[in-house]
Design brief:
Helix content is about 75%, strand content about 0%. It is an all-alpha fold and about 180 residues long. Helix 1 runs parallel beside helix 6.
Length: about 180
């Protein structure tokens, strides 16, 4: 599955041909359709596979000594990955800009993903507010959506510029 994820990540859904998929999987067309049904079904499976790997990177309240440190670690880790990366962005973010208006199932998948990440951020923010690390007057849901949007922005911008360390620091100062 990783090779198919890489292919969709590199070329996008629309840019990936059936021949690309046949070549990547090593299956002939008949076997491909018997195994995966169609390109869209394989794409959805690829998104799920990628999402599961990415969601392992989202810290939980118990991951670090402090919830704010967990948020900081996530953003600095992503910033480091961006600086060392190959400027592909994030598969889910790329999918948002490519397909969200065309495919209701993709939109639903991406909304669910956003909700999971935002809810993780809400838990971290509320714990940080209880610890006095984040201003308790700040709305945790709005701040969580801001952090999610900032992640998305970093990943899109990383496709054209990898020098985002200062931007990451600014995001972290704002919480």
């Amino acid at each position: 599955m990783d090779v198919v994820v890489e292919l969709f990540w590199k070329k996008g859904y629309n840019g990936t041909s059936m021949q690309d998929l046949v070549d990547a999987t090593g299956l002939n067309r008949s076997s491909f359709y018997n195994t995966f049904v169609d390109k869209f079904t394989l794409f959805e499976a690829s998104l799920t596979h990628y999402q599961q790997k990415q969601n392992q990177l989202i810290p939980t309240v118990n991951t670090f000594k402090s919830p704010k440190q967990a948020i900081t670690s996530l953003f600095k880790g992503i910033s480091k990955d961006i600086m060392n990366g190959d400027q592909k962005g994030c598969l889910l973010t790329n999918c948002t800009t490519e397909l969200v208006k065309q495919e209701p199932r993709i939109k639903s998948f991406l909304q669910d993903n956003k909700n999971k990440i935002v809810n993780s951020f809400i838990s971290l923010i509320q714990a940080a507010q209880e610890n006095g690390e984040i201003d308790p007057e700040k709305d945790s849901q709005t701040l969580a959506l801001y952090l999610f949007s900032s992640l998305q922005g970093l990943r899109v911008t990383s496709m054209i510029d990898t020098q985002l360390e200062g931007v990451t620091e600014e995001i972290l100062r704002s919480i």
